[in-house]
Amino acid sequence: MSAENDTPRLETRNLVRHFDGRRVVDDVSLSIRAGQVTCLLGPSGCGKSTTLRMIAGVEMQDSGEIWVDGKLVCDTIFRVPPERREIGLMFQDFALFPHLSVADNVAFGLRQGSKAEKRARVEELLTRVHLIGHIDDYPHQLSGGEQQRVALARALAPRPKIMLMDEPFSGLDNRLRDGIRDETLALLKEENTAVLLVTHEPEEAMRMADEIALMRAGRIVQRGAPYNVYTRPADLAAVAFFSDTN
Ligand code: ADP
Ligand code: MG
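^ thats the input. predicted complex w/ magnesium ion below
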């Protein structure tokens, strides 16, 4: 493996964030490689979204560093703006642009390339998420699951180095969720993206993660392959978390 491939796509070093004097994110260090899915898993309020928002660049850390592809993008003095971090985002309320067609939604973030190249990328992704037949439809004509797949295609269109996903499937019907999880995972792997997926559901982390980072009260208390974290929880609180929410 070359030295370049060895460089993590995303690295956070000792991220800290306070709100109202409370340490909401407490010394969070993560490292994610291309093609790897890391799930930041923990109960509601433990600091997952705040961590993700700092990486996205929409929230400032009090201390710590964020590196993308071996380059510093943010510390306490230096800050690359969110739109220049080559990061794709997907949230629960995925909010497609209602006045734009499916094709234009997916093309929205494509700044480089000719018109034909952009069109080819849009068609490639819509084919991949099985929505090519809806290319000229508008979001209101699609189901929730279909809209979510368009949102995924839109986020991946510019080939982001990193995908940040915050509970992206929690708005979906139970019956749809597993299928969309599997489809999403397959596409993320094909695109070789580094993924940080935030969830409070152990089941989702078990299904999607290469690595789980278990978070509690702002800290990462355990990390490892899903099977290892699940079968050998670090402490009683981790045992309780896995059994409570299942
Ligand atoms: P999670 O995503 O794990 O549910 P969050 O990162 O959203 O957790 O929130 C962690 C803690 O920080 C919570 O107690 C939340 O109330 C608090 N918090 C988050 N954002 C703010 C804010 N802008 N102002 C004050 N407190 C906040
Ligand atoms: Mg959250």
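The chain has a mean pLDDT of 93.
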